[in-house]
Structures are given as structure tokens and as C-alpha cells.
Amino acid sequence: MTRARCGIIGFAVCLAAIIVAAPVLGHTETGGAGGFSSGFLHPVLGPDHVIAMIAVGLWGVFLGAPAIWVLPIVFPLIMALGGAFGMIEVPLPAVETGIALSAVVLGICVALALKPPLWAAALIVGIFAVFHGYAHGTEMPVASDAVSYALGFVVATGLLHLCGIAFGGLAKWPVGRIAVRTAGVLIAFAGGAFLTGMA
């Protein structure tokens, strides 16, 4: 089996795992109502979150090691902090705009295969992670256990990053590189659509 097929299969497996896990977690009867399952489903069911999370993984692939692992670690950690701010209702303006812009900016970074220094890439990812986490935190169901809910959205985010990394593996070949950069263009356009939809 070629590496290109392995990348496509890996991406498909990641997406299938997320899709299959959603209904399974939706029917768990352990923990508080809206705990881990609600936290897990929140980013997975939000297309604006999904495309940005996948873009982080795709961009990490273009940046190579160590960014391929640093970015998907930085994002969930900072996102959890943003989630805590959302849960305790610390004011943060333009959250939805920040989320939409994350898709635009990260999509452009992938489309252009930009390679800034690691610290700059981590800073960009970290800034946008605050907005995503804040949205998750403010939308936590009232009956939720905050820790379980946060763990849910962090795990789901990590899986979406892995989907991006799996698909980004195609960038090792010229045709795959075009496919990955095209995905970046589509992500940026989708983010733009979210932005214009808010106007």
C-alpha cells in the first residue's frame, strides 16, 4: 500500500472514529448530564471549529517537526484556559469573529504553506485557541461537570488535529501537496463565509 493511500485511509479512519463516537457518547449514562459527552460533541458538531482544528494539523505537517506535535499540544492547552474563562464568564469580545478568523488565517497558512518560526506559529495558534475554548466554556450545559466537559472538548480537538495530520501526510508527494494546499484554500473560504454570515 502506498503512503498516499495510507494518508487517505488514516484521515478517513479519524473522521469515522469521530462520527461513530458522537452517537455512542451521546448515550452514556455515567457522569453528570452534559459532561464529557457534551464537551466532546461541541467542537465536533460545529463546522467552524472542525475546519480550524483540521487546519492546525495540516499546518503542523507543512512546518514539520517539532511543530507537527507542538501546535496540536499548544492549541488544546490554551483552549482549555479559554474554556475556563468562558465558564467563569470573563468578558471576551468578538468570540465568533475570532473563531471565523481562525479558519481564514489558518487556511491561508496551509494554502500558502507558510513556514514562520515555531514561536510565531505557536502564538498564532494559541491566540485563536482562546476564542475556541471560550466558546466551548460559555456554552457548557448548566448541569455539566466542568472538568469532564473540558476533558471532552480537549479530546475531540486532539482527534480533529490528528485528522488534519493524517490528511496532511499526503503533502510528501507533489499531488498530495496540491490536495493539502487546496484544503487550506477551502478552509479559508469557509471561514470567510462564516465571517460574512455574521455581518
Automatic annotation (TrEMBL):
UniProt keyword list: Membrane, Transmembrane, Transmembrane helix
Highest rank taxon of the organism: Bacteria
Transmembrane segments: 50-78, 90-113, 119-135, 147-167, 179-198
Pfam family, one: HupE_UreJ
Keyword Transmembrane: yes
Protein name per Swiss-Prot or TrEMBL: HupE/UreJ family protein
Protein's organism: Microbaculum marinum
